[in-house]
C-alpha cells in the first residue's frame, strides 16, 4: 500500500516537474510567434484602421501600434530615418519613398481611393456643387468654410487652396476660412462652428453630425489612391504582409466602403 502511494506521489512530482519545464517553453514559443507591428498611416485611413486593428489582433495574436499624421509629415519623417513595419500613404508618396530605399521593393499594394469632397452639418440643406459655376456661387455665399491648413501638408487642404486660386476667389474666401491642422474639418462642421467643410470623403463619412454633399465637380474632382508598403527594417515581413492582406481582404473591403472609401 505504501509502495502504491509512493508510486503515485512520484508520478505526480514527475508530472509537476515536467509541466514546470514545459510551460516556459510554451510561453517562449507563444512570444516568438506573436509580432508587434508599427504602422504609420495617413489620417484619411484612421476610421478604417481603428475598426480593423482589433479584428486583426484577435485573429492573429499580433499587436499593432498605429501612428497617424498627414501624408507630408509622414513622408518627411520617413525620409529622415523613422520607419515602420507597414506604411500607409498615397501611392505617389510611397512610390517616391521606394525609390529612396525607404520601402521594400515590390511590396506596395493599393488599398483604396477617396475623393476631395464637400461636407455640411447633418440635417442642413445640401448646397449645389454640381458644376464649377454652382460651386463658385456656393462658396461665395457660404458664411464660413473649414479645411486642412495647406502649410501643414494635408493633401485635401493643399489641393483645395489650388482650387480656390483656379476659381479666382482666394481673396474673397480668406475672411471666412477656418484652417485646421489635419483631418478635423468634418468635426468642426458637425459642431456647427463652420457652415461648410472640405476634406477627403473618408474623413467626412465616419463623423456623426456631418453629412457628405459630394465631390468637387468636373475636372476639379481629385481622387487620391492610398497604398501600403513594407518598411525595409521590419523584423517580421510575414506579419506586415498579413496586416496589409487583412485590410484588402473581404472584411477590410466592407469596412473601407462603410468609411467612404472605394476598395482597390
- Fraction of residues in helices? 40-55%
Supply the number of helical segments: 11
Structural class computed from helices and strand pairing: alpha/beta
Number of domains: 1
Instruction: Provide the CATH top-level class.
Output: Alpha Beta
Gyration radius, rounded: 25 Å
- What does the overall shape look like? elongated
- Approximate strand percentage: 15-25%
Query: N-to-C SSE series?
Result: HEHEHEHEHEHHEHEHEEHHE
Q: pLDDT average, as an integer? A: 89
**In CATH, what is the homologous superfamily?**
Periplasmic binding protein-like II
Task: Tell me the CATH architecture.
Answer: 3-Layer(aba) Sandwich
First-last Cα distance: 74 Å
Query: What characterizes the major β-sheet?
Result: 10 strands, mixed
User: Could you list the spans in which at least 5 consecutive residues all have pLDDT below 50?
Assistant: 1-32
- According to CATH, the fold-level topology is D-Maltodextrin-Binding Protein, domain 2
Number of E-state strands: 10
List the helices and strands and how they pair.
Elements: H1 2-33, E1 36-42, H2 46-60, E2 63-69, H3 71-79, E3 86-90, H4 91-99, E4 109-121, H5 132-141, E5 145-148, H6 155-167, H7 170-174, E6 177-180, H8 185-190, E7 196-200, H9 201-204, E8 210-215, E9 223-230, H10 237-248, H11 250-258, E10 262-263
Parallel strand pairs: 1-2, 1-3, 5-6, 5-7
Antiparallel strand pairs: 3-9, 4-7, 4-8, 4-9, 4-10
Helix pairs in contact: 10-11
Structural overview:
It is a single chain. The chain is an alpha/beta fold. It has one domain: 3-Layer(aba) Sandwich (D-Maltodextrin-Binding Protein, domain 2), CATH 3.40.190.10. The protein is 47% helix and 23% strand. It is built from 11 helices and 10 strands. Strands 1, 2, 3, 4, 5, 6, 7, 8, 9 and 10 form a 10-stranded mixed sheet that branches. Strand 1, helix 2 and strand 2 form a beta-alpha-beta unit. The radius of gyration is 25 Å and the shape is elongated. The protein starts with a helix and ends with a strand. The N terminus is likely disordered.
